[in-house]
Design goal:
This protein is an alpha+beta fold. The chain is built from 13 helices and 22 strands. Helices cover about 30% and strands about 25% of the residues. Bound molecules: shikimate-3-phosphate (S3P).
């Protein structure tokens, strides 16, 4: 009986999801040709960090009292998290530009949402919230757009099932799925089989409402915003570094059932958004751009390291701390880039920046080799094949390997693609923005089939770019 009721609920969720997709498809795609640009000069500021924005709303909603957030990224992904936390009882209010107030309900006190949670395009919202819900006695249906519905959720279903949560997922462990949370959940010790901050965070968030100590072992370090912020909210969380088979492993322990204290959070600028403008300034001759307030957490800053290895001039000014995270203003000047072999060990610290790194490599002198990037195949799109196709269409010389791309750069010459080639974005914001940057350094421009996905992470991207491109 219970099974058939859940089956029926899942069918309703699927139907809703289907109609959401129909609506999406009905809205016209917004194609645009990004034209060659003169020098990019001036000072810009990119919006707040996406990862930190998601976490500030989630933890604010789990604290008792008011959390104030400034510099919040108001992209569609973060708005999906805000709507989900509202649907589970928190009050999440916009006070002004990037200024938000969250009144939390407390760990353990989330309410049963009355409708499926629509996660849109956002993998971070989905996987982290699955963790949050897993140790609450509520049943939640997660739905999303076509891109999100194609992404694997088995990686979070597995540890959360070990903790006692029950799942009914679509084929291949995908959305739409129904999660039945459990309390008390079982504290586990979980060794991450993939380098994923989302999986790590899901387990830690489930551990928040689980009596005892939940442990995550991370063989390869990934972004540590969850750890920093959980501590900031008063959770008893420790991180131990020990020697493992392939270098240092991190053992992260969290004690549930935690009582989180509301915070005032200032979100630093998103290095992943800054990366598009860093590469733009490096590849467009005559450019000199100051990008203010860029988060430079070492678990995120791999792109700066790699672009410097390629000969990029990126100067850090005014280093400081914002919201418990290292931040600097970056002064970026046009540079003659050289191809390099990118150290695969750096991949987790720049996992979202490879699409735009591939653009930089296409314009460098010599060959750039990347490897160890299997994870790129399960992002918002298969970013290896999407970028190989897009850059080839734009006139770059690219060879796709199973776990990376090999790119022969033009040595600074403009990209010369065929006039009628069109980038397929596959509902992936980072493909759209990367190819927009490629357009600036092309002879005839680059056509992007749909710019709408940009709003998921960087709604002001085009306005900022248009303000700079002469
Ligand atoms: C994120 C982790 C990364 C990243 C994503 C944001 C996060 O995903 O690609 O954009 O905020 O934890 P994975 O955990 O799948 O590597």
């Amino acid at each position: 009986m219970r099974q058939s009721q859940r089956g029926a609920r899942l069918a309703i969720a699927r139907a809703r999801c289907q109609s959401a997709r129909v609506n999406n498809d009905a809205a016209p795609a917004r194609p645009r040709r990004f034209l060659p640009s003169g020098p990019l000069r001036g000072t810009i500021r990119v919006p707040g960090d996406k990862s930190i924005s998601h976490r500030s709303i989630m933890l604010g909603a789990l604290a008792v009292g008011e959390t104030r957030v400034s510099g919040l990224l108001e992209g569609e992904d973060v708005l999906a998290t805000a709507a989900a936390m509202r649907a589970m009882g928190a009050s999440v209010e916009r006070l002004g530009d990037g200024e938000w107030s969250v009144h939390g309900v407390g760990v353990g006190a989330l309410l049963q949402p009355q409708a499926p949670l629509d996660m849109g395009n956002s993998g971070t919202s989905t996987r982290l919230l699955m963790g949050v819900v897993a140790s609450h006695t509520i049943t939640v249906q997660f739905v999303g757009d076509a891109s999100l519905s194609g992404r694997p959720m088995g990686r979070v279903i597995e540890p959360l099932s070990q903790m006692g949560a029950a799942f009914e997922a679509s084929e291949g462990g995908r959305l739409p799925l129904t999660l039945r949370g459990v309390w008390p959940a079982v504290p586990i010790e979980y060794r991450l089989p993939v380098a994923s901050a989302q999986v790590k965070s899901a387990v830690l968030l489930a551990g928040l409402n689980t009596a005892g100590i939940t442990t995550v072992i991370e063989p390869v370090p990934t972004r540590d915003h969850s750890e920093r912020m959980l501590r900031g909210f008063g959770a008893d969380l420790t991180v131990e570094e020990v020697g493992g088979a392939n270098g240092l492993e991190r053992i992260i322990r969290i004690r549930g059932e935690a009582e989180l204290k509301p915070q005032t959070i200032e979100v630093p600028g998103d290095p992943s958004s800054a990366a598009f403008f860093i590469v733009a300034a490096l590849v467009v001759p005559g450019s000199e751009l100051l990008i203010e307030n860029v988060g430079l957490n070492p678990t995120r800053a791999g792109i700066v390291t790699v672009l410097r290895q390629m000969g990029g001039s990126i100067e850090e000014l005014n280093r400081r701390e914002v919201g418990g995270e290292p931040v600097a203003d970056l002064l970026v000047k046009h540079s003659a880039l050289r191809g390099i072999e990118v150290d695969p060990a750096l991949a987790p610290s720049m996992i979202d920046e490879f699409p735009v790194l591939f653009v930089a490599a296409s314009l460098a002198q010599g060959t750039t080799v990347t490897s160890g990037l299997d994870e790129l195949r399960v992002k918002e799109s298969d970013r290896l094949s999407a970028m190989a196709a897009a850059l080839t269409g734009a006139g770059a010389r690219v060879t796709e390997q199973h776990d990376g791309l090999i790119i022969e750069g033009t040595g600074g010459e403009q990209l010369r693609g065929s006039a009628n080639s069109r980038t397929k974005t596959h509902l992936d914001h980072r493909i759209a923005m990367s190819m927009a940057i490629a357009g600036l350094a092309s002879r005839d421009g680059v056509e992007v089939d749909d710019t709408r996905p940009i709003a998921t992470s960087f709604p002001v991207f085009e306005a900022l770019l248009d303000g700079l491109s002469p």
